[in-house]
Design a protein that fits this description.
Number of strands: 10
Bound molecules: adenosine-5'-diphosphate, magnesium ion
Structural class: alpha/beta
Helix content: 25-40%
Keywords: Amino-acid transport, ATP-binding, Nucleotide-binding, Transport
Protein name: Branched-chain amino acid transport system ATP-binding protein
Pfam family, one: ABC_tran
Distance between the termini: 33 Å
Family: Belongs to the ABC transporter superfamily.
Strand content: 25-35%
Largest sheet: 6 strands, mixed
Organism: Kibdelosporangium banguiense
Strand order of the largest sheet: 6-7-8-3-9-10
Oligomer: single chain
Length: about 240
Amino acid sequence: MLLEVQGINVHYGKIAALKGVSLEVDEGEIVTLIGANGAGKTTTLKTISGLRPLTSGAIRFKGQDISKVPGHKRVILGIGQSPEGRGIFPGMTVLENLMMGAYARKDDVSKQLEEVFELFPRLAERKSQFGGTMSGGEQQMLTIGRALMTNPSVLLLDEPSMGLAPLLIQQIFEIIQTINARGTTVLLVEQNAQQALSIAHRAYVLETGMVVKSAPAQELLHDPAVRAAYLGGDLGLH
Ligand SMILES: Nc1ncnc2c1ncn2[C@@H]1O[C@H](COP(=O)(O)OP(=O)(O)O)[C@@H](O)[C@H]1O
Ligand SMILES: [Mg+2]
């Protein structure tokens, strides 16, 4: 197993955001984590990447317990994160933003840069444009591209489709599939459950800090309870 989250509890002060969350991501998979606002999806990703400490439980990556490894070292181990809400550097150019993603690497990053530009031709065209002047969709691509610059084994994506127009949403999901087909494992957090389940191999449903369901993604796509709660309920219209 590439990534194992084992019964983690995570708190913000006295408030428990995650209550014994367990999940697994195998090499080569796209696994999606769906759930309502406030369910704990972002907290789960942040705890995996080392931005939040856990109170108990463990996170294992490539067989190693990384629960206490600092975040910047997890990047080097192969965990790449594309955070919620984009978080690019607005005053830096596209190229500078991408190079920030590679800061932890000592080796030659030109091949990685070439791959990112191949995935996102728009970023290549706009290399010297300031990040802050890019459109929402372009900034989302930049955020994903920056995470890819570390050449991660697993890419954590937090709501990559948020705030995008339908056509761009479609494009982002296709790119996620391409990234996966090229060998990167993906853990995808989405409120857009329909699209996420359509491209994922397996899925977990998170409710108030707990995993309440896990199954092959196709199975959840046709699960009446999941449809009612997260997919607008109507089987016929989607
Ligand atoms: N910085 C924070 N301080 C206090 N509570 C927080 C903080 N971030 C998140 N929470 C709480 O933790 C819970 C999970 O939040 P989050 O992981 O952001 O959910 P999701 O990403 O699924 O919307 C929510 O109840 C939220 O209010
Ligand atoms: Mg979130």
